[in-house]
Amino acid sequence: MKCIILPEKYDYDGSQISSLWAYNSFGVQEDSIIIFRGACDVKIEHMIDLEDRRANESIWSEDMVSFIIEHFDSTDLKLVYARQRLFTALVREHLAGLGISTSRKGDDLFLEGKKLTVSIASTSAVSQKIHFGINVSHEIYGNLREAGIGDNEGIVRFMKEIGETYVREFEDIEKDLRKSRPLGVV
Question: Is residue 162 over pLDDT 70?
Answer without folding.
Answer: yes
